[in-house]
Amino acid sequence: MGTSKGVAGTFAVVTLLAWSFGAQAIAADAKAELIEREHKCNEAPTLDEALECYDSSDDLVVYDINTPREFDGPKALRADFQPFFDNFKNPKYEYSNERVITAGKLAFTNLIVHMTATDKNGKPVDMTWRATNIWRKENGTWKIIHAHYSVPVDMASGKADMQSKP
């Protein structure tokens, strides 16, 4: 009788450990998937491909670097993103300080994005911004349901710091 309790207890411990490691592996997979998705969404070559990364409902809210302060829903986001695709050519991206937190079907990412490009007149563009995205997994795909993109502001001058360094 003591042996069966010992076996049952050992089985329970092994089962809990396996579940714990399995949950950690799933979370690690979700983190890697979200970082890859974050990069793919930033680097989308077309407006339509970029918008595929965002929730298609009117619940979507994006706080972008430019004005106005808030873009609600996919129609407003399309209008916000269109000038980027019209005005910047050959963007190249570098990412740093990437963090991902997952909780089931919800997650958030935050990172620093450095972009270089040329504008439509051939002038070089070099800017850095902060990005925080809240994601929801829908039908097996992560979609952004809220985004907040920002740059630090020099409080003395009131000017945006487009090259923000730590």
Plain-language structure description:
This protein is of the alpha+beta class and 166 residues long. It has a single domain (2-160), classed as Nuclear Transport Factor 2, Chain: A. Helices cover 37% and strands 39% of the residues. It has three helices and eight strands; from the N terminus they run H-H-E-E-H-E-E-E-E-E-E. It has helices at residues 2-42, 47-51, 73-87; strands spanning 61-63, 71-72, 88-103, 106-119, 124-138, 141-150, 153-154, 159-160. The strands form two sheets. A six-stranded mixed beta sheet has the order 2-1-6-5-4-3, with helices on one face. It is globular, with a radius of gyration of 21 Å. The N and C termini lie far apart (63 Å).
In whole angstroms, the N-to-C terminal distance is 63 Å
Query: Can you name the CATH architecture?
Result: Roll
Structural class label: alpha+beta
* Domain module count: 1
Count every helix, treating DSSP H or I runs of 4 or more residues as helices: 3
Strand residue percentage: 35-45%
Order of helices and strands: HHEEHEEEEEE
The proportion of residues forming helix, as a percent range, comes to: 25-40%
CATH topology: Nuclear Transport Factor 2, Chain: A
CATH class label: Alpha Beta
